[in-house]
Amino acid sequence: MRSGLVxxxxxxxxxxxxxxxxxxxSDEVADAIAAGKPFRLADLTDFEWxxxxxxxxxxxxxxxxxxxxxxxxxxxxxxxxxxxxxxxxVFVRDGEVVEAFDQDWDDGYFDCVGGREFTxxxxxxRVRGEHVLAADGRKxxxxxxx
Length: 146
Description:
By secondary structure, the protein is of the alpha+beta class. Helix content is about 20%, strand content about 25%.
């Protein structure tokens, strides 16, 4: 009986929803955006990171690896590699991805901060509607928010 339970647990673990290393939308980030108030990303994460990036829809491993500065190779596992509807949020520590989320646009629109590198110190954001904007006022070229 015990070996059957171990086998079942192993099979279920292999079918876990985030076995590709990319999780779904962060509830903490979604809640901060829904509150509509400025927030520091470091205050919403329970893991250590030293760089943060946001990537828009239709991303490729090559584009993400180039921005990260090292080979990760898992970006195309994102729900948004071949569609729109959200952003891939990537957290790096010591040259390795430590966490990645597929943040649905319903849970925060990150295109205005795409193409930038943020540290925990400067990853402060403000919210305009569902759009996440850098607190320093710099916007990505793809940003359509005034």
